[in-house]
């Protein structure tokens, strides 16, 4: 069993952002931080106050994260980027929206006193007798504090406040991982109603000190517990005005965020569900019976259909049955009343599954076909416009001839450029039939044959069915927004974006196989009509070759075994190797050089260039950790470290610099995925470097000692090239189907007997088909397996006692009498008397020593 948290984030767009540049505009981008660690940076959208990003990410997290912060920044070339505002989403807010949050959120100001992060290690206890009692706080260490100084670090010290008195620790210079090991004591006030406040500050020689966060303890709670020790998360200063009060006209963000807290059982638990689904796919469609896939399609809402489709596609890819699954969907879709000219234009499960299938298995093919043309469009930046209502003469002035081009000349020039791009792209598509993955060709061959059999009098329909997916749902969206398909690292500017839009529209018209219909809607496309007609003929020939009846040899060899996106190269690129005093094989050969690194399923190797001979390599089994490095270590915030075991058995570290935060996190994610099962992975590490005689992060002098921060092996980014995870896909399908148990039964009777369904749903005793009955039984057994893995819920008496304890603590710490009275009224008299006896009449030393045991256990047993 494994517990994991998956966070899906889609940053859609912004609106009404303030202008940060002298031009009256901004160049906005977003930084996504999870618990104050930067994970994602969107591309910059230039010169706009209403940017559109449309970027989607899925992050695997360690359970227990607290919040997500999305900062909107304005990029500046000559100075530090400006902060426009931020949106903060807590874990509790996401828990209130189990189906995900979607909507607009207003940006709030960024208050330096709220930009806190990190944890502090404390031990707090109450000592002494009834005559003289003391409050002792041992300040041990802290980790991952906010960086407030220009050198990329802070100079932290601790300030303790209690009963009007203040004490301070020493200052640790240039460290976000300080170690104090200091102890402070206060005389305990009577009655002990005060709070102990532990604040962390950054010391500054000039100007005021910077606030780094605080932890507050209730002294009454400490008396009951006797002692508290552990790592405590630093919190912001809540005494300032709330976020809503400070919210101004900073604009807003449209977001879609969904959190999944998943408990993934061992794979054998999901075998009955997987086997049932596979069996249903193999049986295929049977006349007169309602198929399980039909029930799933009919009961799944439009909001969930894309997610369910990709889960099903990945599940059947892992089982080697995706071709049969898609064929079943085509058959079921064609069995419905439909018109040949509207085939697969809706967002049905068949359409979404085929679209997801192309993205999962066809991204390398997409890059191979579209990459050169997209690169050319971005590099040339030609002005292309065919709509007379949008022609801008000033943008194409011909200064060499001392005249301005006419509207007709601008349109003719745009037609020539667009026709050139379209011709190049069609050439690439026509030549790409042999390069198309055999599995995609097989799926299109099935689709082609099914539609031809369904509409024998409309042979044109089978070509349109293929192009409706290949052109309209795959090629055209990638041409329009290449950043979202990883074809480019940045969004296009306004001129390039318009060119891409016209090119995507041309591909759509070619894919419709009837360019004249498009001309009727937009008459200004008429200059492009000859090129579109020629493209339609070429596309028809391409489809004929693509779905040729001859079986591809590679496909025959791969028949019957699981197929999926498992590329030989996981990640590759140029990285700078920083010099250190280490003498490991990697550092000795490559220190100070920029080399090409290649990560595969066996090793992390490097050479001078992509095609050059490999200089050296690290076996994946020898990699112990892949983590970030502090900015102050090398003067860059995009450095990672790969800790590995060298040949001689000693531990070495390679420091590799990436070009941006996205590349950094992509490398870290790829390394963590391929090394996730290594038995020797580290649990702690040093985020700094060892210089002179100590670590730059925590100033420890023991080079081989334990690290000062915890490793983050569980934080990864989801990617289309990731290996398949059958148990995760099965778990997500189970969660979806579990929520449809009652709906599946009702929908079956509605589809099986439409007239009888009007009289109301059938009871649970009504006979169901074997497939649906088995599915409901399998879901029930899986639910019981999950229930066995969860801790048992508390009994009624213990639950009342826990509610009383929590409410009392909250009422006391908050100073509210009403909450305390409300808590007391919900407790049985026996429990109230016992709590009073134990907390008031016992001697203080005995109460301090045995308080937690006496208050919790005997009362709980007595009340139960």
TrEMBL record:
**What are the record keywords, sorted?**
GTPase activation, Metal-binding, Repeat, Zinc, Zinc-finger
Q: Which residues form the PH domain?
A: 568-676
Q: Name one GO biological process term.
A: intracellular signal transduction
Q: Which SMART domains match?
A: BTK, C2, PH, RasGAP
Which residue ranges does the record assign to the Ras-GAP domain?
304-512
**Which residue range or ranges hold the C2 domain?**
1-105, 116-232
Q: Annotated Gene Ontology MF terms?
A: GTPase activator activity; zinc ion binding
Pfam hit, one: C2
Supply the name of the protein. Ras GTPase-activating protein 4
Whose protein is this, by species?
A: Lonchura striata
């Amino acid at each position: 069993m494994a517990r994991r948290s998956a966070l899906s984030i889609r940053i859609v767009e912004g609106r009404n952002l303030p202008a940060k540049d002298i031009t009256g505009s901004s160049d906005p981008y977003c930084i996504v931080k999870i618990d104050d660690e930067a994970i994602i940076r969107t591309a910059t959208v230039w010169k706009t106050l209403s940017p559109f990003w449309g970027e989607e990410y899925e992050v695997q997290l360690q359970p227990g994260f607290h919040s997500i912060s999305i900062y909107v920044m304005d990029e500046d070339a000559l100075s530090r980027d400006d902060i426009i505002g931020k949106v903060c989403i807590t874990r509790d807010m996401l828990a209130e929206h189990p189906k995900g949050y979607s909507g607009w959120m207003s940006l709030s100001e960024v208050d330096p006193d709220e930009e806190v992060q990190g944890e502090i290690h404390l031990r707090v206890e109450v000592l002494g007798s009834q005559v003289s009692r003391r409050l002792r706080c041992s300040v041990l260490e802290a980790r991952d504090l906010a960086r407030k100084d220009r050198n990329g670090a802070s100079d932290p010290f601790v300030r303790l406040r209690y009963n009007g008195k203040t004490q301070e620790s020493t200052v640790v210079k240039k460290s976000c991982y300080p170690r104090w090991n200091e102890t402070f004591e206060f005389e305990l006030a009577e009655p002990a109603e005060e709070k102990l406040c532990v604040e962390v500050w950054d010391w500054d020689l000039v100007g005021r000190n910077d606030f780094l966060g605080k932890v507050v303890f209730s002294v009454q709670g400490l008396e009951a517990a006797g002692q508290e020790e552990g790592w405590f998360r630093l919190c912001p200063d809540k005494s300032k005005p709330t976020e809503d009060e400070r919210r101004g006209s900073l604009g807003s963000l449209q977001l879609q965020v969904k959190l999944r807290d998943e408990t993934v059982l061992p794979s054998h638990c999901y075998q009955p569900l997987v086997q049932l689904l596979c069996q249903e796919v193999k049986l295929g469609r049977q006349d007169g019976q309602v198929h399980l896939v039909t029930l799933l399609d009919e009961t799944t809402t439009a909001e969930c259909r894309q997610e369910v489709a990709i889960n099903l596609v990945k599940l059947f890819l892992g089982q080697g049955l995706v071709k049969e699954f898609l064929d079943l969907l085509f058959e079921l879709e064609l069995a419905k009343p439909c018109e040949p000219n509207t085939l697969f234009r809706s967002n049905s499960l068949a359409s979404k599954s085929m679209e997801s299938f192309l993205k999962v298995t066809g991204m390398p093919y997409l890059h191979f076909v579209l990459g050169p043309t997209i690169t050319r469009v971005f590099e040339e930046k030609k002005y292309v416009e065919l709509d007379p209502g949008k022609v801008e003469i000033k943008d194409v002035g011909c200064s060499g001839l001392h005249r301005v081009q006419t509207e007709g000349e601008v349109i003719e020039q745009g037609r020539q450029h667009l026709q050139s791009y379209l011709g190049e792209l069609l050439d690439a598509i026509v030549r790409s039939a042999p390069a198309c993955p055999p599995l995609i060709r097989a799926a299109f061959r099935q689709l082609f044959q099914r539609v031809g059999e369904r509409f024998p009098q409309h042979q044109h329909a089978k070509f349109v069915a293929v192009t409706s997916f290949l052109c309209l749902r795959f090629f055209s969206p990638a041409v329009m927004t290449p950043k979202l398909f990883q074809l480019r690292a940045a969004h296009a500017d306004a001129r390039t974006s318009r060119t891409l839009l016209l090119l995507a529209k041309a591909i759509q018209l070619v894919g419709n196989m009837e360019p004249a219909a498009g001309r009727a809607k937009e008459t200004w496309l008429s200059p492009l009509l000859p090129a579109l007609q020629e493209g339609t003929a070429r596309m028809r020939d391409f489809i004929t070759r693509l779905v040729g009846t001859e079986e591809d040899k590679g496909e025959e060899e791969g028949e019957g075994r699981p197929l999926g996106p498992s590329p030989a190269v996981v990640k590759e690129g140029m990285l700078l190797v920083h010099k250190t005093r280490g003498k490991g094989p990697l550092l000795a050969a490559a220190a100070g050089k920029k080399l090409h690194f290649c990560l595969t399923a066996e090793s992390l190797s490097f050479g001078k260039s992509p095609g050059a001979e490999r200089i050296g390599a690290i076996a994946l089994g020898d990699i112990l950790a892949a983590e970030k490095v502090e900015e102050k270590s090398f003067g860059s915030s995009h450095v990672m470290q790969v800790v590995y075991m060298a040949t001689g058995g000693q531990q070495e570290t390679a420091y590799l610099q990436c070009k941006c935060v996205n590349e950094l996190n992509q490398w870290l994610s790829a390394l963590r995925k391929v090394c996730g099962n290594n038995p020797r992975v580290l649990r702690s590490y040093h985020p700094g470097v060892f210089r002179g005689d100590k670590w730059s992060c925590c100033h420890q002098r023991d080079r081989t000692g334990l690290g000062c921060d915890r490793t983050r092996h569980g934080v990864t980014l989801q990617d289309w090239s990731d290996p398949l995870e059958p148990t995760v896909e099965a778990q997500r399908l189970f969660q979806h189907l579990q929520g449809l148990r009652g709906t599946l039964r009702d929908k079956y009777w509605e589809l099986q007997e439409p007239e009888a369904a009007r009289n109301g749903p059938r009871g649970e005793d009504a006979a169901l088909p074997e497939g649906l009955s088995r599915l409901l039984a399998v879901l029930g057994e899986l639910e019981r397996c999950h229930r066995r893995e969860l801790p048992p819920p508390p009994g009624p008496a213990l639950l009342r006692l826990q509610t009383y304890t929590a409410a009392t603590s909250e009422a006391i710490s908050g100073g509210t009498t009403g909450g305390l009275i409300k808590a007391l009224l919900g407790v049985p008299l026996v429990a109230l008397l016992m709590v009073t006896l134990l907390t008031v009449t016992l001697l203080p030393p005995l109460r301090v020593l045995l308080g937690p045991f006496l208050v919790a256990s005997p009362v709980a047993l007595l009340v139960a």
